[in-house]
Amino acid sequence: MKTQRHSKIIELIKQFDIETQEELTEKLKESGFDVTQATVSRDIRDLKLTKVSSSDGKQKYKFFIQDDTEVTEKFIKVFKTGVISIDYAQNIIVIKTLNGMAMGVAASLDAMDNDEIIGTIAGDDNIFCVVKTEEKAIKIVEKLKAKINS
After folding, report:
1. What is the C-alpha separation between 28 and 14, in angstroms, rounded?
2. Residue pLDDT, tens place only, 43-76
3. For the residues of 30-62, what is the DSSP string, one character each?
């Protein structure tokens, strides 16, 4: 749902000169998304939307495609450095990390944009990832282990 909402937000700000979060919230509701302003605020931050001046001098949201290569490489380095082990039980993946590294590794995992992962919970040295099916959990574990060994 989040991915669909983000796609719709990008579509809306390309189509309309949207000046405020309230305006964007209304447009999303008109498009069938049941959202709050707080959700829209997080989406704006997640999408790294920027306000720019429109042709009439007002402000509007704009989406810029960004080169996140450097950021992605840093996340991969944190992931490789922090992970001790990865295993799964049915549709739950458990990632053990160095003490204090779980939040950083979880952020790295989120940045890898694994759509198969429904959600993650990070403690001090453990991360639980819920995946839709055991088959997908197996594939993700294989992919993550390969990333560590690359």
Report:
1. 13
2. 998 888 888 887 778 888 887 765 555 556 777 8
3. HTT----HHHHHHHHHHHT-EEEE-TTS-EEEE
The distance from CA 120 to its chain's CA centroid, rounded to whole angstroms, is 11
| Residue whose token pair is 């579509």 | 11
Q: Half-sphere exposure (CA, 13 Å, Cβ side) for 94?
A: 7
The pTM of this model reads 0.55
Give, in order, the Cα–Cα distances in Å from 114 to each of 3, 49, 141.
11, 22, 11
- Cα–Cα distance between 135 and 76 in angstroms, integer? 24
State the pairing for strand pair 83-89/117-122.
unpaired
Give the closest residue to 72 by CA, choosing from 110, 20, 126.
110
pLDDT at 78 over 90: no
Query: Any bridge partners for residue 117, and if so which?
Result: 131
